[in-house]
Amino acid sequence: MLRAANAHAAHAARAASRAYSGSAVRVPQLATFRLPEIANEPTRDYAPGSAEREQLLAAVAEMQSQTRHIPLVINGREVRTGTVLEQRNPGNKAQVLCTYDSAGPAEVDAAIEGALAARSKWEALPLYDRQAIFLRAADLTASKYRYKLMAASMLGQGKNIWQAEIDAATEAADFLRFNVKYSAEIYAQQPPCNAPGIWNRSEYRALEGFVYAVSPFNFTAIGVNLAAAPALMGNVVVWKPSQGAVLSNAIAYDVMREAGVPDGVMQFVPGDAAAMTKRVFEHPEFAALHFTGSTHVFKSMWKQIAANIDRYKSYPRIVGETGGKNYHLVHPSADVPNAVNNTIRGAFEFQGQKCSACSRLYVPRSLWPEFRERLAAGVEAIRQGPVDDPANFMGPVINQAAFDKITNYIEYARNSPDAEIIAGGRYSDADGFYIRPTVVVTTRPDFKLMTEEIFGPVVTAYVYEDADLDATVDLIGATSPYALTGAIFAEDRQAAVDLSARLLHTAGNFYINDKCTGAVVGQQPFGGSRASGTNDKPGSPALLQRFISPRSIKENLGRISGYTYPSNITSN
Ligand SMILES: NC(=O)c1ccc[n+]([C@@H]2O[C@H](COP(=O)([O-])OP(=O)(O)OC[C@H]3O[C@@H](n4cnc5c(N)ncnc54)[C@H](O)[C@@H]3O)[C@@H](O)[C@H]2O)c1
Ligand SMILES: N[C@@H](CCC=O)C(=O)O
């Protein structure tokens, strides 16, 4: 009996695999489907005593009690390379959160070839089916995997509960769901005109080749989007996560697999960044780079792609969102408590490790005494420590290299005659990488800390004379190569209008009376220009356009019986 049941199950499995292989009769699409309503994933507040706080902290405790090993996943199979690295808790250096295999050249090649083998079947899968997979991934992100993703982002990347919630839970789910909505809008774009007897159509092909997704440590959701957005549009993806986010990204990858992303379509390949990238860029079927990270790495990648251009079958698409030197400009009409509190959030949430973080501040002399007092007092009161204590507003920075870089900036300011530290300035890497939120005031608008990306909890203020507002506005665009985010604080409506116009090209995300961080998918598509990136706006249809190659089809419904035109007819 049991043997018969097993034989039946084996037969069913073989039949299913034959059906998927495409050799069986394909059922055509029998309707134009309407998507479920797409909305932002609601945030949970994790108040004391709430079920969500309890469940999340239980997930954190469980994750701390074990060390997961993460293999590469190539063509759906787990691959061990023998080169094993580890990801530690930046708030508690002694704690190893996970170990993982690191890819060498053979694994990179296998990942690329496996992805290419999966390409045509994935591209041919109807959009509805690809959408269903990513909608399922969104639901899994927001439910079954929510607290695991958050716990890994908290322990691995140093996020407190709220920062993990708005990243690994809601933003990740939002990217997945809104991309589905945008993909439908793109497919619905059809030629507006048909000449008599003609039917024109547009098809949105995937790119020919594979996409290389390289993600940063600081946002779990960004890793999800870097890999999932091109895949939704029918592309195959080789995903290299950051060494600082392997655990959370591996859980996001578990979500993709459980949601039904077929083997080979998305390959999860942590590895040595520079060596892996060199190998990838040498492949003739490299079709697109989908990168988020620092400006200097992106520039080096662009140069490598350019150097290899003769190898490629197509011109690779290059999408990169990179660094920032984001500003808050306080107008003399500003509401000071509002500007101060938004500055504290914008500069110090997640330890200033958001590409959008406020790191330069322009305050008029008339408001400075009150502004300074409130800012310094607020900053000194910030609670900081391990992220599993919900009372901590700030945690650690990501690793030793970041700690050293940021504290060098603090020491530079401390030793400069042009600057004064008015809050913070203390740090310790004894147990974890903790740097107190730090406020520097400088007399020079071109001071090093006013112009370079620090990517840590340091904000530098320049106090301008009220009469010099115009000249100060010019400084914003002139003293930094970046143009990612910026905010103005003004109660005077005319001033807000004028400043918005004058600052047009200084930020891709511009805020009025709000902090310069915290863009929400579907509400404020994100990205900057100049040295901050290609501004392809993740969280909007514009990004998805970069990962398709449209085909125009003209079908003639009539037939011709000759080849001349009326203009060829002569009077005799
Ligand atoms: N504009 C945005 O949307 C945005 C969002 C998040 C982060 N960022 C930027 O990212 C940076 C912080 O993230 P990070 O520290 O992970 O950035 P990073 O540039 O160090 O790393 C990003 C990715 O690039 C890889 N990488 C590093 N060196 C490489 C090399 N030589 N060749 C190929 N790949 C390499 C890393 O392993 C990682 O996967 C900041 O500059 C921040 O502003 C920008
Ligand atoms: N989109 C995020 C920043 C992402 C970069 O780190 C924000 O708007 O704060």
Automatic annotation (TrEMBL):
Single GO MF descriptor: L-glutamate gamma-semialdehyde dehydrogenase activity
EC numbers, comma separated: 1.2.1.88
Name of protein: Multifunctional fusion protein
Keyword NAD: yes
Keywords: NAD, Oxidoreductase, Proline metabolism
Enzyme class: oxidoreductase
Family as reported in the entry's similarity comment: Belongs to the aldehyde dehydrogenase family.
Catalytic activity: L-glutamate 5-semialdehyde + NAD(+) + H2O = L-glutamate + NADH + 2 H(+)
Species for this entry: Coemansia javaensis
Gene name of this polypeptide: PUT2
GO biological process: L-proline catabolic process to L-glutamate
UniProt-listed InterPro entries: Ald_DH/histidinol_DH, Ald_DH_C, Ald_DH_CS_CYS, Ald_DH_N, Aldehyde_DH_dom, P5CDH/ALDH4A1, Proline_metab_enzyme
A Gene Ontology cellular-component term: mitochondrial matrix
Domain Aldehyde dehydrogenase residue range list: 85-550
